[in-house]
TrEMBL record:
It holds the Pfam family DUF4307. Keywords: Membrane, Transmembrane, Transmembrane helix. This is DUF4307 domain-containing protein. The chain crosses the membrane at residues 32-53. It comes from the Bacteria. Residues 1-26 are annotated as: Disordered. The lineage of its organism: Bacteria, Bacillati, Actinomycetota, Actinomycetes, Micromonosporales.
Length: 144
């Protein structure tokens, strides 16, 4: 017959003393280490993201096509505006595509803003190998 203690709730298993090691005291555990590791990891990821954005992101050089005109069998004229740092210059890659979406011409154009201004408006003729349907500005980056 097993011995029952007055401190043990009815229906709870009774373990022989010292046989299974020390039992944990029930209570609230505070996960300080996992929270601390998560905070440090998020901070490191934020620093890496900021550094990569500063290195590869280029928000100061934005281009927008105003219009494309002068479509012939051998060229298209692209009128565009570029936002650069004050008095800066940019090299922009222009592309012409045919009606089926194929690239039919490319041109790199360098534009420079007047001193104290950030916007440059330019008109460039892109030579093509077939009749173009559209003229675009793919990207602009610092001139150099």
């Amino acid at each position: 017959m097993s011995e029952t203690h007055a401190t043990v709730a009815p229906g709870a298993p009774v373990f022989p003393p010292g046989r299974y090691g020390r039992r944990r005291e029930p209570g609230r555990r505070r996960p300080i280490l996992p929270v601390l590791v998560a905070v440090v990891l998020l901070a490191l990821l934020g620093l890496v993201a900021a550094r990569l954005y500063n290195q590869y992101g280029d928000p100061d050089y934005r281009a927008e096509v105003i219009t494309y005109t002068g479509i012939t069998d051998s060229s298209v004229t692209v009128d565009f505006r570029v936002t650069v740092p004050e008095g800066g210059s940019a090299t922009c890659l222009l592309r012409a595509r045919s009606h089926d979406g194929a690239d039919v011409g490319h041109l790199e154009a360098t534009v420079t803003a007047p001193p104290g201004e950030r916007h440059v408006r330019s008109r460039q003729e892109v030579p093509t190998s077939a009749r173009p349907f559209i003229g675009e500005v793919l990207r602009c980056r610092p001139a150099g």
